[in-house]
Fold:
Amino acid sequence: MTDKPLDDYGLMLQRVQRVGTDYIELHIVRREKERPDVPLGCSGDGEIFAGYGCPKHLLGLALDGLGMRGFVSDSTSNVSFIGHGVEFYDVYSSHERKLRRMLKAVKRVNDRIAKDEAREPGDQLVAFAKALKLSFVVERIGPARRDPDWRWMTIQEGRNRYRTLIDQAVAEAIARKTA
Structure:
């Protein structure tokens, strides 16, 4: 096996509609040194091996499906953003070894969020990135298509963009409710 250059790991930020509700999601992606203009998913079963471009600090962690997902609730008189806790999403199968790696990853991120006393979603994004030493945030620009354009950001720029997306989604929900 030949070692390849280390990949960069970061967070993909996206706003999506699910069953008529605005969700704002973050999940881990990687950027290969050979193709730095396209974010890629993590390994399929969450296991990352040394020599395949994974930095040492991420070895032994399950990253595929790890993220934060929140939504805009307008079911009460107070429109608000709910959620944004660290969780695994869309996990279709698991086994004991994978579950241990998943728990280790979530614990590492939650411990950092607690240490930083990050209560606001933007601050939690920063703590998430610090916990796993992530280096970027990326967002698709424009409509979904075969070759999308991407906005690459620093963690701080990503935090600000995350806050902006939440504020926009809440403002739009308030406007719909009062219309």
Summary: Residues 19 and 142 are 21 Å apart (CA to CA).
